[in-house]
Amino acid sequence: MSQAPSPGKEQFLALKLDINKILPLFKDAGNWQERYRQIMLQGKSLPTLNDNYRVESAQVRGCESNAWLYHSQIDGKHYFLADSDARVVKGLIALLLAACHGKSDNEIRSFDIEGYFDELGLTGQLSPSRTNGLFALAKAIKAVV
Questions:
Q1: What is the pTM for the complete model shown?
Q2: DSSP output for 84-97
Q3: Going along 27-97, which residue ranges are E strands?
Q4: Of the four listed, 2, 31, 82, 144, which is most buried by Cβ atoms within 10 Å?
């Protein structure tokens, strides 16, 4: 069996997510519907992974929806590519990657997902299955450092 393909360095570096632009969008959202809309919009910022990258070995275990995660360490920083077949999950992935993409070992180890989602105003708003999937993805990200 051949090894699954992996995205190239340029694909990892091409992903631009700015947490400093994302946080105000959520803080300024007046209600859950506006935050939900922002989740969906953030998902659109992630590139769709080519089908040849949507392989079982890259799937995140614990997500109810299909989600795939790739990692590359470049110059001491961690970069990620991820995708999901569910729009809301893809948006949540974008929010998580905005906090972890291009970060050092220590920054990722010290990342507080609960505090981050409190800050975004999303704690208690997500279904248990989406919350579990989100924590599974955060655990997969932390597992690489």
A1: 0.90
A2: ESSHHHHHHHHHHH
A3: 67-74, 77-84
A4: 82
Q: Which residues are catalytic?
A: 63
Q: Is 118 helix (H, G, I), strand (E, B) or coil?
A: helix
d(CA 71, CA 93): 14
* Angstrom distance (rounded) from CA 78 to CA 30: 33
Say which CATH class 21-142 falls into: alpha beta
Residue 2 has pLDDT above 50, yes or no: no
Instruction: For residues 53 and 137, give the distance between their C-alpha atoms in angstroms, rounded to a whole number.
Output: 17
Q: Are 67 and 59 in contact (CB under 8 A)?
A: yes
3-state secondary structure (DSSP) of residue 17? coil
The predicted structure's pLDDT at residue 55: 92
Q: What is the mean pLDDT of residues 94-122?
A: 94
Q: How far is CA 54 from the centre of its chain?
A: 15
**Using CA atoms, how far apart are residues 85 and 105, in angstroms rounded to an integer?**
29
Domains of the chain: which residue ranges?
21-142
